[in-house]
Amino acid sequence: MEPLYKLFIYRNKLIRPYIELLLRWVDGVTYAMSVVFILSLVYEHGFRISFGEAEILRDLHHWAWLVFLTDTSLHILLNYSDTRQKYKGLTWVVNLMLYLTLVPVVFHEPEVPGGVHAFWMFCRSSLYHTVLLTVLSLLQLSSGVVRLLGKRTNPSLIFASSFLIFILLGASLLMLPRATYHGISFIDALFTATSATCVTGLVSVDVSSTFTPMGLFVIILLIQVGGLGVMTLTSFFAMFFMGNTSLYNQLAVRDMVSSQSLNSLLSTLLYILGFTLVIEAVGMGILFSDIHGTMGMSLKEELAFSAFHSISAFCNAGFSTLPANLGNDLLMHRHYVLYLTISFLIILGGIGFPILVNLYETVSYEVRMLFCRLFFRNRRIVRRVHLYNLNTRIALIMTALLLVIGTLAILAFEWNHAFAGMTAAEKWVQAFFNATCPRTAGFTSVGMTTFSTQTLLLMVVLMMIGGGTQSTAGGVKVNVFAVVELNLRAMLVGADRVTIFNRELSTDSIRRSNGTFILYLLIVFTGIFALSLLEPRASVMALVFECTSALSTVGSSLDLTPTLCDGSKLIVILLMFVGRVGALTLISSLVRQKKIKNYRYPSDNIIIN
């Protein structure tokens, strides 16, 4: 046994480094092939290709299949122990599906029709191969992105870079010949891609007449990815399939999605994706039932319309496929359900995923308690006291206050102005809708230029406040605004600490909230000042509205966006990007962070007032 034991040790010592080197080289080739395969799909569906080009792409897909097959086989044969720990059950399912593509290669086509013949044809179909290779490519790329976190790279830099990469990819896709009817300039494609990825809604071209169904699909895909967050999707895809990642990776992802612990990390990601898909599906169903047979669309067009607007509303994007957005004459006077549904989708998307998770857990707990009281009456039940966390309570109260105040104020200012000629029910619906949309979803039903100055100023404030943290919304966030107001109240009453609901707010929360608010004001002022130089003919109100809308990722405009010059569009693009990524996140990714010092300087006071 001793010679065999020594042989085993020497084999691991001498051969294993070469095996690991070989597998790293194979992984590198597989990553490169994943990128090439995705680009080939874009070329195939974005351009009008000839028969010869189709043959080249077919050969390229065959080589991609060989590379993935080789990569999977080598990992299993040469490093099975690590591979078994690394892969989860779904990864083995995908690998099994990859090996099923060998069935037509090994076995001849069955001569007798039936289930075996159908299975053989399924394994041979080009659609099956394309979908499988696409999943494998996305899996490889997602794993590569998550592994970057293990390199001790700044997570804020990765987060900002991921949005920048998707914006550039989106702009490239929108410039494809099949994406537009008559072509589009790069600056307009970049503007639209930024607005979609940053879920803003500002557009420099007319969406309905410029983009083909393929272009609209690219836009809604960018909206979905931008609303959820690139790192959320890639982290979920990698962790759900690959399973074990490094501890540092999991800590970085946990901070990004605000998970309470590493044990609940994957469940939090599942909650985020689950809530998104379920809410968007329900919203799509309600929208479809409301518009079915009323707008002169085919069934396919009605489904596409419902899906597009449900996703756009929940992600707080504000994009619409209709001319004049949701102020189209086909909708204005008969579709109360549509406006209310979109309003509630905006609220749910802008309230924040942590709040949705907390609400779900609270409802689940109440249902379990009710079940226990009904069927286990003799059992003593200890009830939890704090079901809603502090963040949830602040966000819900602030959201309700802003909606009520905004609705009543807009109704009062516009009853006989912009809403003149509407019925009382239409006025209430439009007031609620237009109080909801400035909370970072730039849908429009009534022309923004028809509103009074008081309503526009109120909308500027609503846009500045925005939605909840860790949501699809922008702005300074309701949580930040609440903390700033609470700090101001404590200062006015002479309190030495900031408290709410019998909880004392931490100094770090107060500092970050004040810093976020001041930084927002500085950036929006810089944007207004820069646009005033480039657009001297525009009114101050239009400039303030445009910059606030861009930085808060709202998407509302006083008809200024299509008239902007290229330089002004670049400034608005930058504002949208900063607003979606977050000013503090962006700056912290670029500025070198100071180390925590173990000493303190003597304190002193500054004369104020």
Give the DSSP E fraction (strand runs of 2 or more residues): under 5%
Number of helices: 26
Number of strands: 2
Overall 3D geometry?
globular
What level of helicity do the residues show? 55-70%
Task: Write the H/E string, N to C.
Answer: HHHHHHHHHHHHHHHHHHHHHHEEHHHH
Strands of the biggest beta sheet: in what spatial order? 1-2
Low-confidence stretches: 240-251, 255-264
What class do helices, strands and sheet pairing give? Answer: mainly alpha
Mean pLDDT, to the nearest integer, reads: 80
Tell me the span between the first and last alpha carbons: 86 Å
Cα-atom Rg, whole angstroms?
A: 27 Å
Care to describe what's here?
By secondary structure, the protein is mostly helical. Helix content is 69%, strand content 1%. It contains 26 helices and two strands. A two-stranded antiparallel sheet has the order 1-2. β1 and β2 form a beta hairpin. α9 crosses α26, α12 crosses α13 and α13 packs across α15. The longest helix is centred in the first third of the chain and has 31 residues. The protein is globular and about 85 Å long.
Give me a quick take on this structure.
This protein is an all-alpha fold and 609 residues long. It has helices at residues 2-14, 16-46, 51-78, 80-86, 89-100, 103-106, 115-124, 126-149, 155-174, 186-197, 207-210, 213-228, 230-242, 247-257, 265-291, 299-314, 336-351, 353-375, 390-414, 424-436, 453-465, 478-493, 507-534, 540-551, 566-581, 583-590; strands at residues 499-500, 503-504. The protein has a two-stranded antiparallel sheet.
